[in-house]
């Protein structure tokens, strides 16, 4: 694992540079004034923003997933010395350019192939793309380990656990406690939630994030995904992972030990902090981070999650219990249902119904069996059949 060395620019790739995490990552590089040599920046289809970033950071290559955007990217980068490339294969090639540190911040299962490609190179992977762990967690972690690299979580809860986990006392960990804000509908009744609009669902109370994860926070599927993520990352069964609602998002998660002591990590809700940790671990970066002013908060509050209004946590527990392809299927069904909700095809409460319905149907068809062969192929096969079935289920719920 390559640690930052004073005076030596680390070679970096930022996958998903145009998104919320990607932008925070580049901003942190500026704020912390760290020495980085950016090998590649990648985006989905936001060619204007990608070109702007590329002109500022001068990577060797700027890659856009959507091939129809390549002519415009080429035009915008003409004369800059930055090569333009396009397509999913080019994104994975960028991930495997031999960087010391790769930020994995593509949204959804689309991040799996490039993250695995980066893992095979032995890079330090700063992992924001939780969906890749959900789809193929054990394989991804094993590939990174075997290649001599590492996976450092960026997701705020997992970064918190990563920071307070005492590696010498791993057998004395009794519980991992994930905090959840409760999202924008924490206090809404079911009748109001049924009518919630996409605009209301993406209005997260504490964090400014991409649309998909914002809807996941509103359904609390984000916590379901995070429970699976924590189970794989910290090798902990789901029975020992709990969720507590903490509306202020100041305590990012906790580790409870068998001697009755519970350690927590705190900070203002700012993703540059876990990104900073993943960049400099086991050291710390200096940058003008806003300090935590506990007196200004006055009080930190906690409540138990309501599984009737937010069934997604239970759905994720069931997917983890089923094992095999169930987490990947759950993730794919959720991506389909969230996209349909954002497109106003289904109602807010239909998202969790569609995910549960897809899992039920696939289980009945025997399509959630343990994977065989290549982890990526097998996760992508499960992903594809879950998307097909979820589209049918969503069609039945169409408004
Ligand atoms: N935002 C946050 O605070 C947090 C995010 N995460 C996780 O980090 C990941 C990124 O989240 P966030 O930054 O909010 O998401 P955004 O939607 O803001 O950004 C997603 C990024 O992925 C790119 N992208 C989208 N689809 C594809 C594709 N098919 N191929 C290649 N690139 C693609 C987007 O490009 P384009 O701009 O062109 O569409 C963009 O750069 C998610 O997995 C999320 O769960 C975890 C914790 C916190
Ligand atoms: C910032 C981050 O890590 C998000 O995953 C956050 O946790 C979302 O907030 P919720 O707690 O509402 O899901
Ligand atoms: Mn999180």
From TrEMBL:
Presence of keyword Zinc: no
Sequence ranges assigned to domain DXP reductoisomerase C-terminal in this UniProt record: 266-388
Domain 1-deoxy-D-xylulose 5-phosphate reductoisomerase N-terminal: 12-137
Domain spans labelled 1-deoxy-D-xylulose 5-phosphate reductoisomerase C-terminal: 151-234
Keyword Nucleotide-binding part of the UniProt annotation: no
Annotated positions binding 1-deoxy-D-xylulose 5-phosphate: 130, 156-157, 181, 204, 217, 222-223, 226
EC number: 1.1.1.267
Residues the entry annotates as binding Mn(2+): 155, 157, 226
Protein's pathway: Isoprenoid biosynthesis; isopentenyl diphosphate biosynthesis via DXP pathway; isopentenyl diphosphate from 1-deoxy-D-xylulose 5-phosphate: step 1/6
Cofactor needs: Mg(2+); Mn(2+)
Molecular-function GO terms, alphabetical: 1-deoxy-D-xylulose-5-phosphate reductoisomerase activity
UniProt keyword terms in alphabetical order: Isoprene biosynthesis, Magnesium, Manganese, Metal-binding, NADP, Oxidoreductase
Family: Belongs to the DXR family.
Protein task: Catalyzes the NADPH-dependent rearrangement and reduction of 1-deoxy-D-xylulose-5-phosphate (DXP) to 2-C-methyl-D-erythritol 4-phosphate (MEP).
Name the record gives this protein: 1-deoxy-D-xylulose 5-phosphate reductoisomerase
Organism: Caulobacter rhizosphaerae
Gene from which the chain derives: dxr
